[in-house]
Structures are given as C-alpha cells and as structure tokens.
Amino acid sequence: MKEATGRLKQNLQRLEKSAQKIVETRGYTQDVEKIKMLGELIKEQLINENSRPATRTVR
Amino acid sequence: MKILVLQLARFGDIYLSWPTLRALKRNYPEAEIHFMVRERFRAAAHGIEAVDRLRVLPMSSIFRPLLEGDDGIEGSLFVLSNFVDTLVDEQYDRVINLSYSPFSSYLTHHLACLRNIEVQGYTRHKDGTLAIPDDLSAYFYAQVGIGRFNRFHLGEIFSSVAGVELESSDWAPLSGVDLETEKNRLLTEFGIPDGPYYTVHISASQSSKSYPAFKWRQVLAKLEKEVPEHFILLGSKDELDLAEEIMSASRLGRIHSLVGKTQMDDLFPLIHGAEGLLGADSVAMHIASLSATRAFNLSFASVNFWETGPRVDGSRVVWAEAPESLPSDRVVDEFLSFRAEEPAPARAIIRSNDHPQGFQLYGYIDEQFEWSLIHALYMDGQFPPIPDELTESGLQRLNEVVQLALEQIRVMGDGADNPAASLEILQQVDDIIKTIHKLAPRLHPMIAWFQTERARMAPGNFANTLERTKSLFQQLQLILTVYFGPVNENAIQIGGSDGEQAMVK
User: Fold this and answer.
1) Is B252 exposed, middle or buried (0-12, 13-18, 19+ CB in 10 A)?
2) Which end of chain B, N or C, is less surrounded by CB atoms within 10 Å?
3) Tens of pLDDT, residues B190-214
4) Residue B281 region, left (φ>0) first, then alpha (ψ -120 to 50), else beta?
5) Inter-chain contacts counted by CB atoms under 8 A, chains A and B
6) How many CB atoms within 10 Å of residue B211?
7) Which chain B residue has the Cα nearest residue A18?
C-alpha cells in the first residue's frame, strides 16, 4: 500500500512538472488538459488512501 | 440531441441523481441520455430506465500502468486519452456535470470546448482555471457540504443544476423488476419467514456516520422484545464482523442477517417491501427515498441531513453530535414513536414534504441565522438580525475591509503612482476576509458567496478584472448597508450608476 502510494505521489509530481512545462511553452493545450485529468484522478486516490473514496468532498 | 450527465461521486450521489435523469428524459423525450459513473460504483447506475447508455470511467485500466511499472505515466495517459476521445467522438450537445470534482471539471471543459456546447456544472476556462458557469453550481460551491448551512436536498440541487423540475414520480425505484415477487424470492432464498419486517442498514461509508455495533445490538435486543416485526440486517461483506456482533442480540429469532449476501439490486425489493428502514446516512437511505419507504435515520454532525437525509413523508431523523453520544434508549423510544406513526414526541425531526424546508423540527433550537442569510443572499429573503457579538464584530470588520478595498480599487482606476502597493493591499484584503471567516464562522454564507463570486470571474485584462472586482465589492458593500446603514458618499461615487443593479440575486 505504502509502495503504491509513493509511486502515485512520484508520478503526480512528474505530471505536474510536465504540465507546467507545456503551459510555459505552448500554453494551455488539450494535452495539458489530459495530464491535468490524470493528475486529479491520482490526487483523489491519495486523498482517499486511508478511507473509502469520497469524491464529492473534493472540490 | 445527445446529453451526457457526469456523476463521478459514490453510490449515494448516483442514486440521488436518478430523479434528475428521469426529469431530463421527461423534458427531452427525444434526447439520447448518457450517464457516466466510476467503475467501482456502476452497480448504482443499473436499473434507471431514463439512461440510454451507461459510460463507465475505467479507473482500474487507467491506474494499472501507473501502479505496475516505474514509468507508467505514458500508459495511463494513453488509456485515459483513448477513453476521453471516445467521449469526444459522441459529439454531445450538452454536458451536465453533477460531480463537483476537479477531474470532472477538466473533462467537462474538454468535451465542451471543441464544439462550444451547453454546459452545466463545474468546467474550466480556456486557461485551465476553474469555471462555474451556472448560479446553482456556484451555490453548491459556496454553501453545500458538511459543516455548511444548505437546507436544500441534494436530489433537488442536482435537478436545478440540470435545469429541470422534479415530479414526485421521479423518486421511483429501479424499473423492469416486479419488486414484490423479487422480495418474496429473496426472503424464501434466505429462509426469512413471511411477514412484516424492518430493514436495518448497519453501517455507512465512514465510521463517523455509523452507529456502533454494540449500540445496534442494544437497540435491536430491546426492539425484538417490544415489537412483533422481524429485522433484516443489510450491509456489505466488509461489515460481516459488525453483523455477527449485532446478531448476538437475537433471542427470539426475529433478527436476520443478509449482510454480505445481497447484491445492490436486491436492496430495492427488500427495502421497498419493508415497513421502514433504520440506518445512518447511507446508500440504503437513498434507496428508501426512491422506494417510497419511510426511513428512521440516525444522523450525526458528520453529515447534513437537510441535503442527504430521507425524502419520504413521515421519515424521522434522530440527530446527535456523534454516534457515541446517541444513547440506545433514545433510539428505541424514538423508533417506537416512529413505528406507531404517533404525533411528534417532545423531540423529533420529521420529514414533511409540505414544509418549505422539508423537515419539521420539534424540541430542537433551530439556529436559523445562517440559513436566513442564505435565503437573503440567494432568494431575496430578509436579512436576519445579528445573532451575537462575535458575528457583529465580524460584520464590522468586513465593512471596514470592503471600504479599504474599494478605496484601493479607486486609486488603481485613477492611475495610481504606485499601483503595485494598491494591488498588494487588495491581496491582503483577501487574507483578512479569510481571517474574519475564521473569527466569525456564522458569516460563512456571506463570505463564501463573496469568495465564490470572485472565483467565478473569468480571466481578463487588468482593467476588466479591476472593474469586475469593484462591482463585486460594491455588491458586498450594499449587503452590509443592511446592517450598517447607507453607503457613504464616497462609496456611492465609486459605485456609480451600477450600484442599484448590484443587488444580490
């Protein structure tokens, strides 16, 4: 569980960096939007890692 | 017309979306309605006849590459991208996002921006910042949730966001099943004698919402002696230990456990055929609401019964701060009154669909200030009197800070020598308002309304943003005149001719 969480956190950081780089060079593109989507899905899992998913609290 | 409805929350919110889906189908009978849920909660989307196509967010496929390899990002993005592209290919005419999550807002924008289609619910601006296009979603953002003061039921909020009126027939159970026959089949299969029974949902999604097993045991041990009906325990496999503990209460053989033995669809016939449902705020409660079954709802401060509580007339809410502070004797007494459909006892919260707020409170001190404030801000109601010194002090500070903000905006608009300083002061104003919020929490509805309206401002150039910021502070100033008298002359000058139009709707 800890290993999976760590991996997700690491990947989230990489995604955020990638998105930032693309925004700086090409602006907010559809590719960035998909990266953002994946990042948000990961964040939801991290928020809920110790409980059942409660997605409505994520605003 | 093709409509996509996004509901990416849990079981409960999916069931609470059913009435909206039915109302949409009634209003747009020719429309093809697609309903999107998460893979894990897809069972709650089964049996809703208003849906033409179920779309399932494939969470496990998306996450598999991320969890399996060191370099899974590419793989996960590939799966997600393919899924999103299939949605784009559907060429939806309208997207209704009932999810209120960041992910859903990005997805909504992605589907909407290519074809400039109609959107309700959270989305994104073209620079990726959050966009809240409709007033109902803005209301949700500001006022709905735990620890807030909304009193509209979530089922009705969903329908308002979708722009449809609900009818009582929209609150109906799953279709295509003879519920009575199915109930009899299940009772026979599990060896439960025919006769009147209550269903008991023993747990909820979080422990802070759940009544402890030892207290359920005490309650059911007494009820088994007091009333002739049977009690059927419902729950998931995860709750088998709880069920075992509760079952140890049974002395007369009238408590039966189906915990871990039923599928989601089985809950409809079992709850529909019951005399009532006992339980916390959970999926079973929403199934009772859809099944015209009265509910006896144990509710705690960790949920908001106004927005997710029972919907059927005569249902009762037994409220306590926390599960530990609700004595089993009180639950027994209130249940006996509920069962007998007696007039309200000294203390009760009773569902009444004729009541403007949906629940009639007996024997409780109903702190109305926050709700009245919501009414005033959103529904042209009267602003309530200030309830205490702390709130009065908060309002005074807010009034002062609004004056300060408007002064800085005026200076910047006049071409200030040092606009950076004014801008910094404006940023500090935001921090001060946050602090006032903490110090005077009863002002939440007003401050949350203001902050939400600021968040709703679309990206724009400096002059445009300054103008809209000014207009918003003027609206807040006008509201505060209710408590502190007319706006002073300088402020009126700043407000200009727009002042009168800035009343909050």
Assistant:
1) exposed
2) C
3) 999 999 999 999 887 677 778 899 9
4) beta
5) 91
6) 25
7) B73
- B320 in A contact zone (CB under 8 Å): no
Chain A residues within 8 A of B8 when measuring between CB atoms: 55
Half-sphere exposure of B219 (CA within 13 A, CB side): 25
**Cβ within 8 Å of residue B353, ≥6 positions away:** B311, B313
In terms of Cα–Cα distance, which of B30, B165, B35, B11 is closest to B97?
Answer: B35
Residue with tokens 């593109």: A29
Q: What is the 3-state secondary structure (H, E, C) of A1-59?
A: CHHHHHHHHHHHHHHHHHHHHHHHHHCCCHHHHHHHHHHHHHHHHHHCCCCCCCHHHCC
- A51 closest CB neighbour out of B9, B38, B206: B206
How many CB atoms are located within 10 Å of the residue B37 CB?
26
Of B433, B436, B437, B468, residue with least CA distance to B453: B468
The arithmetic mean of pLDDT across residues B456-472, rounded, is 88
Backbone phi, then psi, for A27, in 5-degree steps?
85, -170
- Residues 375..404 of B with a Cβ closer than 8 Å to A: which? none
Indicate the pTM of the whole model: 0.90
ipTM score of complex: 0.85
